């Protein structure tokens, strides 16, 4: 067994999913089963913080599969199968419901303040669904959540698949007040045309540029340019994959308003999430 301790604090069983077609079919059936219950598929939450104060301003939801025999399976190992089988549509909706219910609970408990945002990843399959916006509006109403707290994160590749329909669905989401974030910004091949064509509210600067920010001149210039672009277009920005104090310092110096990454906290289950900085984290 190749066993590897992930940075997220879970154990990844690489061997479990490296098998043939039969295994993929079995896994598909298992995912179908998992979607009918509520114990195997669990939302983890990773905070993002205000770069000046260190205060948590919201969370991104990331799916984890606690498989009864295979251990904890990270999304990269089952999302492709979920996409191919069409189960991704149900998975995303399952995650939207679970995450919204959790935010509602945190608000009711006084844990989350009125501005605490919730980011949820959305696959391209869901951008094909003309009823998505109405469905989400129903979930939000049931949870008593203001739609503007919810950001749906989509990647450029999700938009390539379904350009016209995606545009329509995204407009409908805007109309119900939900916000849209462009994930992994800068790693696709036509990011600027997407910004032009779709109405995004927020950009997530990909870890590829964050990794060497402040160290490598090109990375630093790219991050600076993305921040200027976001400001010109009046978009919010989050830098993702922030792992070191050096990256935090460089991003703060460049004026990046929000930061997310292992430096602050990995994604964690609802009961164990990180709610804020000790005074020392951002000091100096
Ligand atoms: P993403 O949305 O770009 O999420 C960021 C990924 O980077 C997450 O991996 C997160 O755990 C990881 N990460 C966060 N901080 C750091 C850091 O400081 N360093 C490093 N090296 N990694 C960091 P994860 O959870 O394995 O998810 C991978 C991708 O799977 C996500 O990328 C997203 O595209 C997709 N995904 C996750 N959950 C869902 C879901 O519920 N629905 C859909 N459709 N996609 C999901
Ligand atoms: Mg994301
Ligand atoms: Mg990302
Ligand atoms: Mg990504």
TrEMBL record:
Signal peptide positions on this chain: none
Protein name per Swiss-Prot or TrEMBL: EAL domain-containing protein
Coiled-coil region list: none
Domain of life: Bacteria
Lineage: Bacteria, Pseudomonadati, Pseudomonadota, Betaproteobacteria, Neisseriales
Boundaries of every EAL domain copy: 24-281
């Amino acid at each position: 067994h190749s066993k590897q301790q992930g940075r997220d604090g879970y154990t990844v069983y690489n061997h479990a999913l490296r098998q043939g077609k039969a295994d993929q079919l079995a896994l598909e059936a298992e995912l179908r089963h998992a979607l009918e219950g509520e114990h195997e598929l669990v939302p983890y939450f990773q905070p993002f913080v205000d770069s000046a104060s260190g205060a948590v301003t919201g969370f991104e939801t990331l799916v984890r599969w606690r498989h009864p025999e295979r251990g904890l399976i990270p999304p990269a190992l089952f999302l492709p199968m979920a996409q191919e089988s069409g189960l991704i549509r149900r998975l995303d909706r399952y995650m939207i419901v679970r995450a919204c219910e959790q935010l509602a609970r945190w608000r009711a408990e006084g844990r989350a303040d009125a501005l605490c945002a919730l980011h949820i990843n959305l696959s391209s399959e869901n951008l094909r669904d003309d009823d998505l916006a109405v469905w989400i509006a129903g979930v939000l109403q049931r949870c008593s959540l203001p739609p503007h707290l919810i950001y749906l994160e989509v990647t450029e590749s999700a938009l390539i698949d379904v350009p016209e329909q995606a545009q329509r669905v995204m407009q409908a989401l805007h109309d119900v007040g939900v916000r849209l974030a462009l994930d992994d910004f800068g790693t696709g091949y036509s990011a600027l045309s997407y910004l032009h064509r779709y109405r995004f509210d927020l950009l997530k600067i990909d870890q590829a540029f964050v990794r060497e920010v402040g160290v490598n001149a090109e990375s630093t210039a790219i991050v600076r340019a993305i921040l200027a672009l976001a400001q010109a277009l009046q978009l919010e920005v989050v830098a993702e994959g922030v792992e070191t104090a050096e990256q935090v310092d460089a991003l703060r110096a460049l004026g990046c308003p929000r930061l997310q990454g292992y430096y602050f906290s990995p994604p964690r289950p609802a009961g164990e999430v990180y709610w804020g900085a000790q005074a020392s984290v951002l000091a100096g």
